[in-house]
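Posting for a labmate who doesn't have an account.
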Amino acid sequence: MRALILAGLAGAAMMAAILVVVAWVWLWAGGFDPRASSPSRWAPVALDIALKQRIEAADARLGPPPASNDRRAVIGYRQYDAECAACHGAPDAPRALWAKSLNPQPPDLTETPARLSPKALFWLICHGVKMTAMPAFGVQRTDDEIWDLALFVRALPTMKAQDYQRLRATYGPAPKPFALTPDAACLRGD
């Protein structure tokens, strides 16, 4: 019985080693296309599966989001207008032309239905997403500032252009770069 278990383990190890070698040869031979100008077939699927799992786990760990208020909306707007609108669009302006050349393209948050919970948005903003140009804002924001931005993004699809323009006229954009307290606590828990 013991010999059978050892043989099974040896076979599994051999299979894993073969898969690693095949993957390495595939990469070395140019099997993976790193160009941003060509669509990827498997990367978005793998990324989507991994993100869903991480977000679900984070959703269970995070406490309830803070209540939205005018102060949070202004801070969220200033962060969004300064550092997010170029990639994700604003109610009064489309995404920057260069953002449309990213692969995968960032979602246009003015049109995307608010399908993500505030906690999911908090996690995405804090940690960013590999291979998407979405930075981890947790390295330069506090948790409160990330919550402000997440709550603003959640409300963005329902915002009218004149409301966004009113915010800009009243509060102006945030200074660039929007550098605040670094190292949000959200980075330490995941």
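Reply:
Got it, the structure tokens are right above this. Residues 86 and 97 are 9 Å apart (CA to CA).
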